[in-house]
Amino acid sequence: MIIVLRPEATEAQVNHIIDKVKALGLTPHVSKGSERTIIGVIGPEDILRVTPLEVFPGVENVIPVLSPFRLVSREFRKDDSVIDLGKGVKIGGKEIVVMAGPCTIENIDSLYEIAKEVKNAGATVLRGGAFKPRTSPYSFQGLGKEGLQMLREVGTELGMVTISEVMDSRDVNLVADYVDVLQIGCRNMQNFNLLKEVGATKKPVLLKRGMASTVKDMLMSAEYILSGGNFSVILCERGIRTFEDSTRNTLDISAVPVAKQLSHLPIVVDPSHAAGKWGLVPALAKAGVAAGCDGLIIEVHNHPEEAASDGAQSLIPENFASLMGEMKAIAKALGRNIL
């Protein structure tokens, strides 16, 4: 349920409503916008339906929320959420954020070389996997803590925001100590214990859509994180599993406007995992920009043929730089720009 307050509502009136909600055994979440303050209430709506909150001083309207996701909904927050990633980078506004780097951190020299290239091309966020979920137990699983240390060192030296995946709830604090943004991969989108752990942090979270999940499934997973107190969540469309076998996954480009219609959270497109082939990445990336995404996460490697993982879908720096120029032109036509 959402409680909409009058523009002139005082702090004392707001606190009085919060105290009443808590006394009913429910959880209030306050969101202060430019025009209105609203209070989202988590818990059985039947309790509030028999409690006349409309008569409380400062209350303008009380709106029942029928959708299972509440905090992520447009009803809870009308304006787009703009999330601060650190180092002057924000996502969810007019600027489109580009995250780029290798699928897997292999060594610090390679990471530094790739990071310099993508930064020069215009990327502001450095991606790199330290813990890798692999289909085969015999495939390279990542460097773990050593990889995180390399990522932080390179990111600090180049002044780039860093992002890496966390796979286990026991590793949340470890990964959070080294990176600016925590990534939840598609296989863990419904790992609810992990979602609760990242919800207890204050780190921004990139939540990837599961390969067989609906947009609403993704929003429910985001709800887990927000309900834990962490409102810095970024959605990510990375392709879903369909009958089509000409690509690694099928990029659901319609997920971008659908998510924006249903939720205030920013959304990123991952063309690399959707395509599985580097030659298809530019077209999908540009489609994401045209559809209104707030960011892209793209795999780049200086020697894809030698990459420890996902070399086939990685752009070489030269092709990435060319793509950045093309995406900037599309963004400009839409009244936006790329950081």
Encode the helix/strand succession as letters.
Answer: EHEEHEEEEHEHEHEHEHEHEHHEHE
- Integer-rounded radius of gyration: 21 Å
Return the domain count.
2
Mean pLDDT rating = 93
Strand order of the largest sheet: 7-8-9-10-11-12-13-14
Provide structural commentary.
This protein has about 350 residues and is of the alpha/beta class. It has two domains: about 1-65, Phospho-2-dehydro-3-deoxyheptonate aldolase, domain 1 (Alpha-Beta Plaits); about 85-339, TIM Barrel. The protein is built from eleven helices and 15 strands. The chain has helices at about 10-25, 45-50, 110-120, 145-160, 170-180, 190-200, 215-225, 255-260, 270-275, 280-290, 315-335; strands spanning about 1-5, 25-30, 35-40, 60-65, 85, 90, 95-100, 125, 160-165, 180-185, 205-210, 235, 265-270, 295-300, 335-339. An eight-stranded parallel beta barrel has the order 7-8-9-10-11-12-13-14, surrounded by six helices. The chain has a four-stranded antiparallel sheet with strand order 2-3-1-4, with helices on one face. Helix 3 (about 110-120) packs parallel to helix 4 (about 145-160). It starts with a strand and ends with a strand. The model has no long low-confidence stretch (mean pLDDT about 95).
Secondary structure topology:
Layout: E1 2-5, H1 11-23, E2 27-32, E3 37-42, H2 45-49, E4 59-63, E5 83-86, E6 89-91, E7 95-101, H3 108-121, E8 125-127, H4 145-158, E9 161-165, H5 172-178, E10 181-184, H6 192-199, E11 205-208, H7 215-227, E12 233-237, H8 255-262, E13 267-269, H9 271-275, H10 281-291, E14 295-299, H11 317-333, E15 337-338
Parallel strand pairs: 7-8, 7-14, 7-15, 8-9, 9-10, 10-11, 11-12, 12-13, 13-14
Antiparallel strand pairs: 1-3, 1-4, 2-3, 5-6
Helix pairs in contact: 3-4, 3-11, 6-7, 10-11
